[in-house]
């Protein structure tokens, strides 16, 4: 649902160049499209791109790159901290007007979870630049039925098979829709003045993981629960899992503050998962 961000009179910002790391990712693809459609000059940065020259010519930097499940050859440090240090160094040299960064609820440089720790270190590196930084700490992000994304896809039934649910399924989640993340990032990017600070983003509905899986499958699903100790063991054996990802799947995934305050601050409305998925998942079920 586009068009939820209140339009602003941008003046000089209309001609600003916006550099976007992680431009080919789930959030980055939609953000680049939205900004380009509104006439902004967008420079998408991929892993193969030399980021420093592009950032040097940018007025705004959207740092959306990072990994909850690092690719082969990467680590949490290289995917989350090293990339942020590159951005920070380039921002210091360029004098960019603002930075917008996607982080995760619970990010903390002292966390025992490597993902949360490296996200916390990334936040610290960006804030040390002295440039206004807007940080959105998100929970798990879910795309629409046609483009569910990496978080939703494992919970969608395939050809009548049962859906595997880690743990007892009673852990709480406040699923965050992709469209709402895009609205937040676009608003933080295009406002005439930067709005620095750390803001939590989560969906307006809190449900159990079992309820989420049923919503993704049109209200019905056959579930198979895998005990937490076995899931933790599998995290060391399966390339699709990491211990850090499993930790997050087994615990509550909700904001620690009211996410509606973030939505209000940036001028958009949050949407519940059911608005996009209820009654539609059956028609979009993967083969």
What's a concise summary of this model?
The chain is an alpha/beta fold and 287 residues long. The chain is 37% helix and 17% strand.
Describe the main β-sheet briefly.
Answer: 6 strands, parallel
- Helix percent reads 25-40%
Output the strand order for the largest sheet.
Answer: 2-1-3-4-5-10
How would the global form be characterised? globular
Q: What is the overall pLDDT average?
A: 88
Count of helical regions: 11
Radius of gyration computed on alpha carbons: 19 Å
Tally of DSSP β-strands: 12
Strand content: 15-25%
What does this structure look like?
- This protein is α/β, with parallel strands linked by helices and 287 residues long.
- It has a single domain (11-277), classed as 3-Layer(aba) Sandwich (Rossmann fold).
- 37% of the residues lie in helices and 17% in strands.
- The protein has 11 helices and 12 strands.
- The strands form 4 sheets. Strands 2-1-3-4-5-10 form a 6-stranded parallel beta sheet, with helices on both faces.
- Helix 4 links the parallel strand 4 (98-104) and strand 5 (133-138).
- The longest helix is centred in the N-terminal third of the chain and has 19 residues, at 76-94.
- The model is unreliable at 1-14 and 281-287 (pLDDT under 50).
């Amino acid at each position: 649902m586009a068009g939820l961000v209140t339009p602003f009179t941008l003046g000089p910002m209309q001609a600003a160049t916006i550099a976007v790391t992680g431009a080919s990712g789930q959030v980055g693809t939609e953000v680049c499209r939205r900004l380009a459609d509104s006439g902004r000059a967008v420079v998408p940065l991929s892993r193969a791109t030399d980021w420093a020259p592009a950032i040097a010519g940018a007025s705004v930097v959207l740092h959306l790159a990072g990994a909850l499940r690092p690719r082969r050859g990467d680590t949490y440090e290289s995917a989350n901290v090293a990339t942020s240090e590159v951005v920070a160094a380039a921002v210091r040299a360029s004098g960019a007007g603002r930075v917008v960064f996607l982080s995760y609820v619970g990010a903390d440089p002292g966390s025992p979870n490597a993902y949360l720790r490296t996200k916390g270190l990334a936040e610290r590196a960006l804030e040390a630049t002295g440039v206004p930084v807007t940080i959105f700490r998100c929970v798990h992000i879910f795309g629409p039925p046609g483009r569910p994304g990496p978080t939703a896809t494992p919970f969608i039934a395939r050809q009548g098979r049962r859906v595997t649910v880690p743990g007892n399924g009673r852990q709480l989640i406040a699923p965050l829709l992709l469209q709402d993340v895009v609205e937040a990032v676009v608003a933080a990017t295009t406002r005439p003045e930067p709005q620095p600070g750390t803001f939590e983003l989560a969906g307006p509905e809190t449900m159990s993981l079992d309820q989420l899986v049923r919503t993704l499958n049109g209200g019905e699903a056959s579930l198979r629960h895998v005990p937490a100790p076995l899931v933790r063991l599998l995290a060391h054996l399966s390339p699709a899992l990491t211990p850090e990802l499993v930790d997050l799947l087994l615990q509550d995934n909700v904001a620690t503050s009211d996410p509606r305050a973030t939505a209000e601050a940036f001028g958009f409305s949050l949407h519940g998962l059911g608005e996009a998925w209820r009654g539609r998942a059956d028609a979009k079920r993967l083969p």
